[in-house]
Design a protein that fits this description.
The complex is a heterodimer of chains A (381) and B (325).
Chain A: E1 5-6, H1 23-48, H2 63-70, E2 78-80, H3 86-91, H4 96-103, H5 142-155, E3 162-167, H6 174-186, E4 190-196, E5 199-200, E6 203-204, H7 217-221, E7 224-229, H8 233-248, E8 254-259, H9 279-286, H10 289-300, H11 305-328
Parallel strand pairs in A: 1-7, 2-3, 3-4, 4-8, 7-8
Antiparallel strand pairs in A: 5-6
Helix pairs in contact in A: 1-2, 1-10, 1-11, 2-8, 4-11, 5-6
Chain B: E1 3-5, H1 6-20, E2 24-28, H2 44-48, E3 53-55, H3 60-72, E4 76-80, H4 91-105, E5 112-117, H5 132-136, E6 142-144, H6 149-161, E7 166-171, E8 179-181, E9 195-198, E10 203-207, H7 210-226, E11 230-234, E12 237-239, H8 243-253, E13 256-263, H9 268-280, E14 289-293, H10 302-308, H11 312-323
Parallel strand pairs in B: 2-3, 2-4, 4-5, 5-7, 6-7, 10-11, 10-13, 13-14
Antiparallel strand pairs in B: 1-8, 6-12, 9-11
The chains are: A alpha/beta (381), B alpha/beta (325).
Chain lengths: 381, 325
């Protein structure tokens, strides 16, 4: 098999699969990146109005890596996002109404108020599900789980590929290591993407690993590795598409490292005091993925500014409508909390001191002979 | 029908379920060509192929995580922990990921995590554990721990067919010591139902796994040497607990001794005692007593292990005290 590492985004034969996309699809990439940013900005507004119940996680400055990579998947493929991959979920079919309801803990949100933010999914049979698997908070865990998802594809000879995102921080977990190693040994159709955005919460990558770059780990796992500019959406697409094609062709796991930068804190409460002065501003001014792509579309693809303005306006209308619908949605009924821990039994019993609960188990009846024992005999401990 | 061992009964269940359902597959360390550290899966790779009996790297997180992912997609994984002690490595995956999957994401996660458990075998601190209590504490998981060969087979078949994750503890002391005759046909023992291993009038011993046999031995001694009639209830399933069976035996004998091989503090005896206290207080003629392991990592030397673990004599002592209350 032999591990190789590539650094450029030039495909085999010099073809750039991103640049080769027809203009209509290039505009779709723009749409999803802009949609991600607009929806997150709306979430910030709702957060400040205290309508978002929990924390708010931004992907500002990382929209290209989420959108460009997921865009390389087919609808039958399965993707497992991380907290900064809302864009990938939108590409895979998650709706803004679902996301807004999740953040606002609505009763008819995809998780019925059980889970937060973009922790939800829709996975199963091809054609019947959209193919994204909800993450959990412990980092790295989705790598072994996606190894299992792709193992099922291999066992059933289904023409489906899996893609899983981790951050720079998650590469330090045992789950990441075990998952990618297992997938590599089994030669599963899995693409593992490391989004290197510089920080895991407040911890810089230099305190996460002594490796010069995360892509070097591909050599150790015996898998194909490639590093790419994560803020160049066409390069991200190109790199991912080739990895997806390799997986589909039975060539096993790829480890991709996307170089990007987290311009917001871990969550909205985080003031990023740990980031050196000027770093965020520099990335915002010189390496914003949407700004960069707009220049590509206007200068190289000769797209009219009006076309982009039209897309922007359409997105605002769509986000407005989604916000109205999500805000009007009902809150969960408390007793819904008891449903569905198991398939059988389908409902847990409420504890007796809850109003309306069954108190018949409180045995009021005194058994014959009760209270006749001799206390002076004492009792064992 | 010939008698088979507890271990062979488990293998028979695995074999029958793999033959019945092509979605059933097995994953674990050394389970394929080698047949597993205890040979539970011996012969199954030859019969069902490498694609369905998969040798994995030494990666409990990946084994459990991959099983979960495959289970979401409609497969029925049965994974082996080479020793159940190593399930600690997959604790996060089981408690955070698997146990919550249905509740938080409506994701089916039908899978079995099985492995040799328990002491009395001079295995030392890392090949003798009984870590069931931590999983019983986790909503979303089911826990079974059979004591007989018949139950080992029937519960394994039920576990594989269950729609949720079942932790299947196999007592390695019983593997080749206990035999049974399997009922004919498709022998499935329902999860969540205890069994009365011995009828009695004067006190009830509630227990499971290897200590069922210790309790039965003690019950015999109590009867012949002291004229005490002892009921022995084998829980079989620890999550969900069979409250009805527990309360019925309390109402019948009014005296309860709970016996388990697991350590004392935080062990299941505490939970059972609390439930009896809440629901059957008026039926008790004496406080609920416990015979358990000491709160000690299990030592290797026979004299030490035998001291730490519950023995038949301990059960007899506790039962006599309870009856004399």
């Amino acid at each position: 098999m032999g591990s190789r590492r590539r650094r450029t985004s030039d495909g085999p034969g010099g073809q750039h699969l991103g640049e080769m996309l027809p203009l209509e699809r290039k505009l779709e990439l723009y749409y999803w990146m802009r949609f991600t940013r607009t929806l997150e900005e709306r979430l910030v507004a709702l957060y400040r109005q205290t309508k978002v119940v929990g924390g708010l996680f931004r992907s500002l400055g990382q929209e290209a890596d989420a959108v460009g990579s997921c865009y390389a998947l087919e609808s039958r493929d399965v993707m497992s996002p991380l907290i900064r991959n809302m864009g990938a979920m939108l590409v895979k079919g998650a709706t803004p109404v679902e996301i807004l309801k999740q953040y606002m803990a609505k009763g008819d949100s995809p998780t019925r108020g059980r889970e937060l933010n973009i922790h939800f999914g829709d996975v199963g049979e091809a054609g019947k599900t959209r193919g994204f698997l909800g993450q959990i908070s412990p980092l790295g865990d989705m790598v072994p789980v996606m190894a299992g998802v792709t193992m099922s594809f291999k066992m059933r000879r289904e023409d489906r590929v899996g893609l899983v995102y981790v951050g720079d921080g998650a590469t330090s977990t045992g789950a990441f290591h075990e998952g990618i190693n297992f997938a590599a040994v089994q030669k599963l159709p899995l693409v593992v993407i490391i989004e290197n955005n510089g920080y895991a919460y407040s911890t810089p990558t230099a305190k996460q690993t002594a490796a010069k770059q995360f892509v070097d780990k591909a050599i150790g796992y015996g898998v194909y590795g490639e590093q790419v500019d994560g803020n160049d959406v066409l390069a991200v697409y190109d790199c991912t598409k080739r990895a997806v094609d390799r997986a589909r062709a039975g060539e096993g796991v790829s480890l991709l490292e996307f170089m990007t930068f987290r311009r917001k804190g871990h969550a909205e409460h985080d003031n990023q005091s740990y980031v050196p002065p000027g770093e965020i501003e520099l990335w915002a001014a010189e390496n914003d993925p949407i700004d960069r792509y707009v220049r590509v579309l206007l200068d190289r693809e000769k797209v009219e500014q009006a076309t982009l303005d039209e897309i922007d306006a359409r997105i605002v209308r769509e986000v407005d409508a989604a916000t109205d619908e999500a805000e009007a949605a009902p809150l969960p009924q408390p007793l819904d909390a008891l449903i569905g821990v198991y398939a059988d039994p389908p409902v847990e019993k409420p504890l007796w001191y809850r109003e309306g609960a069954d108190v018949s188990s409180l045995g009021k009846e005194r058994a014959e002979g009760w209270g006749t024992w001799d206390a002076s005999k004492g009792g064992p401990r | 029908m010939a008698e088979i061992t507890y271990l062979e009964a488990i293998r028979e269940a695995l074999d029958e379920e793999m033959a019945r359902d092509k979605n059933v597959f097995m994953l674990g360390e050394d389970i394929g060509a080698f047949g597993g550290a205890f040979k539970v899966t011996e012969g199954l790779m030859a019969k069902y192929g490498e694609a369905r009996v998969i040798d994995s790297p030494i990666s409990e997180i990946a084994i459990v995580g991959a099983a979960a992912g495959a289970a979401h997609m409609g497969m029925r994984p049965v994974v082996e922990m080479q020793f159940i002690d190593f399930v600690a490595n997959a604790y996060d995956m089981l408690t955070n990921y698997v146990a919550t999957a249905r509740y938080r994401a409506f994701l089916p996660c039908p899978m079995v995590v099985r492995g040799p458990s328990g002491g009395y075998v001079r295995g030392g601190p890392f090949h003798s554990q009984n870590p069931e209590a931590g999983f019983v504490h986790t909503p979303g998981l089911k826990v079974v721990y059979p004591a007989t060969a018949e139950d080992a087979k029937g519960l394994m078949k039920a576990a594989i067919r269950d729609e949720d994750c079942v932790l299947f503890f196999e007592h390695k002391y019983l593997y080749r010591r206990i035999k049974g005759v399997m009922p004919a046909g498709d022998h499935v023992v329902p999860i969540g139902k205890a069994r009365t291993a011995r009828e009695g009038r004067d006190l009830s011993i509630i227990t499971y796994a290897a200590t069922v046999h210790k309790a039965l031995e003690a019950a015999e001694q109590l009867q012949t040497a002291h004229g005490i009639s002892t009921e022995v209830v084998d829980l079989r399933t620890l999550a969900p607990l069979d409250d009805e069976a527990i309360f019925n035996t309390v109402r019948k004998t009014n005296r309860v001794l709970i016996v388990h091989e697991d350590t004392r503090t935080g062990g299941i005896a505490g939970e059972i005692t609390a439930r009896i206290n809440e629901s059957c207080f008026a039926h008790l003629d004496a406080p609920v007593l416990r015979v358990t392991a000491h709160d000690i990592p299990l030592p290797y030397a026979p004299a030490l292990e035998d001291f730490v673990l519950p023995q038949v004599a301990d059960i007899v002592t506790a039962a006599r005290r309870l009856v004399a209350w």
